[in-house]
Design brief:
The protein has about 700 residues and is an alpha+beta fold. It contains 20 helices and 14 strands. Strands 3, 4, 5, 6, 7, 8, 9, 10 and 14 form a nine-stranded mixed sheet that branches. Strands 11-13-12 form a three-stranded mixed sheet. It has a two-stranded antiparallel sheet with strand order 1-2. Helix 3 runs antiparallel to helix 11.
Length: about 700
Amino acid sequence: MSQNRSDEDSLSNWSLSSAETAYNFPSNQKTTFCPGDKTPAYDRSRRLQLLVLPFIPIVALIVQTSIALNEILDYRNEVMAIEEQVIEATKLGKVVTQIQLERSEVAFRLFTNGNNTLRSNLSTRFADVDRTLSSVSTWPVISVPHYANGTVLTIVNKTEFIHSLQEFRKKSNEKQNSIDEVLHWYTSVNAVLLEHMTQQIKETDRSSSSVWRYLISFKNLLRSIENFGISVVQGINYFARGSLSREKHLYYVQHDTICNDLLYSILHYIPDLHEFYEEIKKNMTDYKLVEERRGQIQLNTPTQGSDSMAIDYFDLMAKYTDELRRLKDELRRGIKENVKADLHDAKYKEYIGISIVILVLVVSPIIIILVRNAVATIQMFAAHLAQKAHELKREKHKSDTLLVQMLPPSVAMQLKQTQQVPAEYYEAVTVYFSDIVGFTEIAAVSTPLEVVNFLNSIYKLFDARIEGYDVYKVETIGDVYMVVSGLPIRNGEQHAGEIASMSLDLLEAVKRFTVRHRPQDDLKLRIGIHSGPVCAGVVGLKMPRYCVFGDTVNTSSRMESTGEALKIHVSPECHRLLTHLQGYHLKERGTVELKGKGSVVTYWLTGEDPFYRSMRSEQRVMRRNQTKLKHGGSKMKKQQGGATATSNTVVINGANSGDSPCINNNNNTINCLPSQQQLLPPARSSLKIP
């Protein structure tokens, strides 16, 4: 029992986080007591590690995130470029469609010797083509037959093409062109435009966009309609003359076959269009007649030619061509939807990337602060965290977190393991009480919301400050703040020093605190501390709370109530412990009447020597690491099941004197802080509170 009690006393009562209580990571390091290390290089190297080690993964993460964001921005620019290409491709597709219609109208006009077609007149068709050409912003360099002599003419801009088109129309109106010449000129123009569209689609195909399938289908559909239009011209000749020459018949079969192949490839690329095409065939009453006429021409069976049959054939095929153009409209709609979806995806990825970069930049300094006190155990924690993360359930994590917030970590762990925590007697602890002087007056002139916000702000400040000390916040009632040191894990005689240093820290913080809704009022804190025995345990079933009982609590409360603003009232018992610890500036107040105690000589705590304050701060860090290592060591022993541990050679820095806390480094070298008996305070100015 004495050995166990000494082990508990050697460990500080640091409040573990929920993550630390949920994971007891193993450790192969040995924690022992050894003399102080007087080498100052240890402190410098330690600080260097704290500064350098967190920066390495953070810088790598920032670089990686920046590269990912750059790739996302490149992807967005690529999608925007694809959108422009798609727009230009669809505009060129409209031009090809209008030229196809103009070719059919001009060819049929020449065939009928100037009679208007059954569908529209040429002036209307020419106006539609010109209107479509005007909407095209960019124009490729194309080579077309010269409208006068048939030589190849290179056209570098849209204006030259419009001029060449108008000259060709003029020549056709004067009936200087044959049907074959008209077919050759328009077909050459469409072939060049479709080839330019193909090159644009190839550029799009190199990207990760899914719109290329629709663009290829769009281009193939235009080629299918183009070949169908060419075959229709030969079909007109067949029905007008009754038969086709071998050369023209082969020409018809070639283009009609290409038309079908391209159409079926579209249905293969875009399966959704298959149902749409079947609906077209079902709703078109003359579809069977279209197939009959195409089959008749492919057989090239001689028949009695007539102009009326040619006109009927042209009108029938024009209707079928219009139905095919409905497929083109459906494809164009699919292209727009895909481009819109790609743009939305690119913007979403951009927002996510920017958010990640901002999050990394904001979280990075927080990470550096959080890992500063855990450099020695961060690798063990990370490795075991990865292993245990898969075993932890969400609901269990929530309940564990809530339990740790309500109870001290060690008590919470004991409660989880045994389902009951017996009350325990502590021979020596230090209890802290404080209240806000004039709080009643402040609350009287403030709204309830302002009072709540004020208390939240001041207690948030207090909670942040006490994180660095070996203390446990018991409760807050109104403006009363109660803290205790020395339980539930005993820390020897350090409890008085922890409470004293914490009180000075809180008093200094309060002096700089400003009440938001009453900035003209100075906040004044009244503090009382007392040391003595207490009894502590978990009270309640539905809402368990860790409570502290005993005369020490009452005396500490009376020390606070009989104190003065901006002063720390110390009892004789606490004064004796602080004097033994050294480094604290205490001033006798005089005799004070305490209820139930009579006349008692009390003291004011006015300050702490900077040298001792720095020394105790380093000792707190060492004790906190010891606490974490002991948690890990206990878990490791359970996992080993009594297995013999491998002995390690340990080099101890410093002479053996006192019982200073030490910690084993990764290289099996134990560095220790000097004990208080080894240190002699040098002559220096002391930090005092007026």
